[in-house]
Amino acid sequence: MAPQDEFEPDDMPTVPIPARRVVTTFDAASRHERIEDKPLLIRSTRRLAIASFGIWTKISSAIGQRLSWRPQVEPYVGYGTDDYSRLICRTVYAPSRSEPGRLVRGARAMLMVPAPATHVRIAIDGVPLTTVQIGSSEVYDKVNRIRDLSGETIVSDVQGYLDLVAERRLEPGIHIVSYQVAHRRPVNSQLFTIPPRTPIGVISDVDDTIMVTQAPSPLRAAYNLLLLNPKKRGSVPGMGVLFNKIADLFPQAPFFYLSTSPWNVESSIRNFIADQGFPQGPLLLRDLDPRPKTFIPSGVQHKLEFAEQLMGDFPDMRFILIGDDGQKDPTTYATIARRYPGRVLAIGIRQLSPREYSPLGPMAGMTTTQPIPVTDAPVFTGTTGSNLMKTMLPYLAKFR
Fold first, then answer.
1. Per the count of CB atoms within 10 A, which of 90, 231, 235, 391 is most buried?
2. Residue 34 domain-assigned (yes or no)
């Protein structure tokens, strides 16, 4: 265990918050993604990718240590009910003057060097968490007793992630989670505590739904993700107005933002949401690193898994699902509606133009590639937020 004097002294209350090990999308062995269930060629390819990434992690970590870099915490926005909270963060190597959560270009964010097995002290509103061993991502749900730290700190996994549930009653609203590692000042992130009986919530895609990324065009999407100045990212016309009008209709409704982008660019998306005036809420991104338990889930599977987690966390909540037809959102949302009858209040699909699908779209006579889903929930379509507002808002107003 890291010596306690490596942490800054504090005056935290001594009454701890218990935390328990959880199985979520980071370390859960999805039935669709288990390596053991894949054909031999896929298993071999994935194991090679995992081994290669492990080598890169060791080399980059060694370089960071030689440069006197130290672990720091990249905090992510959490959410929960009044009984428990889901907390997510990542420990990475960084120069001593590095600022966690700083807005940087995607290419630089993608080069974050994970700091595995790093001791982290966590508190909610100044009250510390007591923690349990969260297990090793190398072995299915097997607890490594050597790393058992049911005390003041908890250890990040082999890629630097911490994903746990804190069990404590909290008042609804926004709370502050503090993360601290040795030789670093504490860093904070928001925790959205949502009343369990909140009737309506919103689940929205990010890419080409609220933020222009041109995801169907790989080259343009790569440029926008990796090279474009994050401050210059464009908002899909009218979507900010639509989201804020939905927030006006349902003031208690939480907004959850799903994206197939990796956690590396979380700060970029979070700053975009704030700068463009969208309602604040947790981001649910995906892990880019090849993992032994989940590898890299597909975009559809990633969204389905997080949607199922939200359905379980808020069993009394009905959801408004908003996405676009560029990355199979219609099919994904139709699947969610079928799996959870009566839980989807409405589906809004933003239709991409042929040019957004491909630079050659207009000349090739391209049209939308995703058919409108057939579900029990009403589906509204439009090329902009303004188009969606004309039909979607009058319907939603009935449930105000």
1. 90
2. no
In a domain, residue 133? The reply is: yes
pTM to 2 decimals?
A: 0.81
55 belongs to a structural domain: no
Q: What is the pLDDT along the chain (400 residues), one digit of tens a residue?
A: 444 446 665 554 445 666 654 544 444 545 555 666 677 887 788 778 777 877 877 888 888 878 888 999 999 999 998 888 888 899 999 888 887 777 666 566 667 888 888 999 999 999 888 765 444 433 333 444 444 445 677 888 777 888 888 887 889 999 999 999 998 999 999 999 998 789 999 999 998 899 887 655 556 656 666 656 667 777 899 999 999 999 999 999 999 998 877 787 888 889 899 999 999 999 988 766 665 555 555 667 778 888 888 998 899 999 999 999 887 889 899 999 999 999 999 999 999 876 766 555 444 444 455 667 678 899 999 999 999 999 999 999 999 8
The CATH code of the domain that includes 343 is 3.40.50.1000
182 and 225, same domain (yes or no): no
Ranges of H-type helices in the chain: 40-66, 106-110, 218-226, 239-249, 266-275, 299-313, 329-339, 354-357, 361-364, 385-397
Instruction: Classify residue 138: in a domain, yes or no.
Output: yes
Reduced to 3 states, what is the DSSP secondary structure of residue 152? Answer: coil
Q: How many CB atoms lie within 10 A of CB 18?
A: 14
